[in-house]
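Students often ask what a holo structure prediction actually looks like on paper. The answer is less mysterious than it sounds. You provide the chain, you provide the ligand, and the output is a string of discrete structure tokens encoding the 3D arrangement of the protein together with adenosine-5'-triphosphate.
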Amino acid sequence: MERTLIAETPAHAGEDVLIRGWIDIRRDHGKLVFLDIRDHSGKIQSIVLPGSDAIAAVADVRGEYAVEIEGLIKERPEKMRNADLPTGGVELEVKSIRVLGKPSVEMPIDVSQTDLGVNLDTLLNHRTLALRNAKVRAIFTIYSEVLRSYDEAMRAGGFVEIKTPKILGSATEGGANFFKIKYFDRDAFLAQSPQFYKQAAMSAFERVFEVGTVFRAEPHFTTRHVNEFTGLDAEMGFIGGMEDIMVELERTMKHIFRNISEACKTELSSYGESVPNDVAIPRIRLSEAEEILRAEYGKELENHDIDGEGEKMICEYVKKTFGSDLVFLTHYPTKLRPFYSMPSKTDPSITETFDLLFRGVEIASGGQRIHEADILVENIRTFGLDPEDFKDYVDIFRYGAPPHGGWGLGSERIVQKLLGLGSIKEAVLYPRDVKRLTP
Ligand code: ATP
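The corresponding structure tokens follow.
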């Protein structure tokens, strides 16, 4: 007999089917045994009757056994239907059961509970098993939809997908947040952004995007940093200015949220969350934000840079003033942005750059880049760097490059803030932090 997916069982009422899946929960009621079975498509209740051939085979079967079951799909009486399950109108009467794989150790955590109720370390130490919990799995169903939707939005906008190298010969952008690795007989570095390569690709394809691993050697102990994350990058040419980039990013975010609200209703509701409403994302200059923070919260910014607390406050202000969960902060001071950031025409002490904040946390950083080689070289010097170290990068702009810019968007932070997760690590399948390299 061919396998029937659990989601399809309601269409097979009155028929014998074969299903495969894990035992979610076993419940014994007198001589009756109830087994909730789950596969990747859904969950169904099954029942083993006392006189049936299967009753002996089911004697040892417990939660998390992987099984194959043949049985009869029966419609449940109206008053016994389970409205919470798509398959709640039917049940499976087990005729035979075969164990395909069984746990050989005591389960360290009970994944059948609605909430695992374990601390972050325990959750991550038992990551593989924890992923069998429906609520934990929901995070990654949504994550998968973020990736799919980003891809879809980018392609719809005419962006070409690229993959850029993650092993680099030099710590290109400078700074201390590079991991050094051994590369045959010399040193190499893990990429901390696809910045230079995506600009190079832009100079040929005009619009490119990348979904790629980003490595950061920052010894952070925060709820929003990990040392390896997946960046959703984009770069676009022939822009009129930074606003064009924000328009594209706003379109992309709205597409992601719309898809999630349609495809992940159960997952969102298991966290009691919903996607942001569809209002236009406000744009606020960082200098204005500084004024707002001072006036509304009595908060002073150091070096005109906004910290985590300031980001939270400004998001709160934007929510109550404009009803938006997202906000663009624009025109960051030149000193706070990388050397390739385009200075504002009217005031070169600020740049044509922005951050996108979502529910209190920065999720993306972007802006217009300098596209003229000579100006770039001058700026590299102004930043106290040696233009010789950036020869390949500067050369991109010696062949004629249009005004351009783009963004780096953190995939995990989107999911973290969407579901209100305490730590970004909950939204990373196997997170890497200062202390954690396993599992
Ligand atoms: P932060 O100020 O929060 O440390 P950043 O300014 O270093 O972030 P960028 O280098 O601009 O971040 O990276 C672009 C995006 O990548 C960020 O907005 C964020 O969503 C994500 N990101 C950056 N660093 C990390 C990290 N260590 N862990 C997870 N995501 C990150």
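The chain has two domains: 6-101, 129-427.
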